[in-house]
Amino acid sequence: MQTILEALRAALELLVSFDPVLLQIVTLSLQVSISALLISTIIGIPIGAGLGLQKKLPARGLVLALINTGMGLPPVAVGLFIFLLLSSSGPLGVLGWLFTPWAMISAQTIIALPLVIGLTLAAVAGVDRDLHLQIRSLGATRWQTARAVLVEARLGILAAIAAAFGGIISEVGAVMLVGGNIAGKTRILTTAIVLETRKGEFAIALALGIVLVVLAFAANVALIRFGGTHQRWRLS
Amino acid sequence: MEYDNRQVLSVDQLSIEKGEILAIVGPSGAGKSTLLRILNFLEPATSGELLFDGQQLQGSVSLEVRRRVTTVFQRPQLLNRSVAANVSFGLNVRGIDTNGRIKAALDLVGLTNLADQAANDLSGGEMQRVALARALVIQPDVLLLDEPTANLDPYNVALIEKLVVEQNQSRETTIVLVTHNIFQARRIAHRCALLLDGHLTEVAATERFFTTPQDPRTAAFVRGEMVY
After folding, report:
1. Domain B1-68+140-228 belongs to what topology?
2. How many CA atoms lie within 13 A of A227 on its CB side?
3. What domains, with CATH codes, occur in chain A?
4. Does the pTM exceed 0.80?
């Protein structure tokens, strides 16, 4: 208990002192995870929405099974796959991305993408089919209908984004494998926590953990507020 | 009309006159709602012809024609937005300026003071009035009503019936009303039709439909002898 309290006090001191190393780790963590989230959102929401809106696509069942499997992919397995792809003898080795933030972004994107697709699909498919008919009946075109349905499903879609962000900001296995946890280059919050814990530097590890939790909380609050403002969205 | 090779609606001919209120009555599962979805071009019929304004409609119906018809469903399908945003939806998708029209529509249904409320927080009667205001504000040529007063209290039933009749009289809006309630059909419709098991058994002027029905099934239905 004493250790935890001491670690907490040291963590707070570290946080309020704006330690440059800590700031660098936090910044890189955000850069990597937000980049991966943006890519998976840009790709995943249209795919998830399309699958949610079109229930008669050929091989839809197979696609859904693949997405559901993807949602449960072990991050370390994704990391290994990306590692093999990007290693010097791998098919994408020429890119020279291994042990760089690009490799970490790639791994986190692969982890986040099925989550965004699957949860967006569920949110869109959950909108009452009669509401689709009502929207069409009010004179909406196909695109306007799709857009209105997406707005109706916005809370579920935001939950998809939040879940994906939570999944990748706290992920450690994949980024450790493909990033290498190199100080000043690929060290992010989760890999730093593992390292500092192994070194016995519990204060620093705890400080990093607090930052991680605060970031995840702040991201969720921001998404909820964003969802609330869309209550007033109007179509034009 | 067929679902999974099962015929659910087979109408030899039904002509709806411009400016009339036609009530379609019949038991549950008779195909009334399916008929309305076909009339609103929300589902294509598996066979047969559909004419609108004398023009035969083939393939996908043009947006211009689609926008002349709208439906108010039994369950008011409101968007998860404010009352005003719901009422403005049909105007927004048409790119029409909503200025003043939303307030006028809400005045009509007596909900002006609830304009900024979340639509899904309203009572059942208020929600149905929002749905009606949303349909009326786009000034459709044809208004389809699918059990619009089912489960509503007498005040809201009377209000909605009054608005429907006024809309018909002031704008000559053609109205097709699907209802279980034969008394409602008798109160407001010019003509009535009985749909049984997907078939129209009789279509007649309201008074004749109720007083001297030609088909024995219609007679049984209006006398309340048909259990459904």
Report:
1. Rossmann fold (3.40.50)
2. 19
3. 2-232 (1.10.3720.10)
4. yes
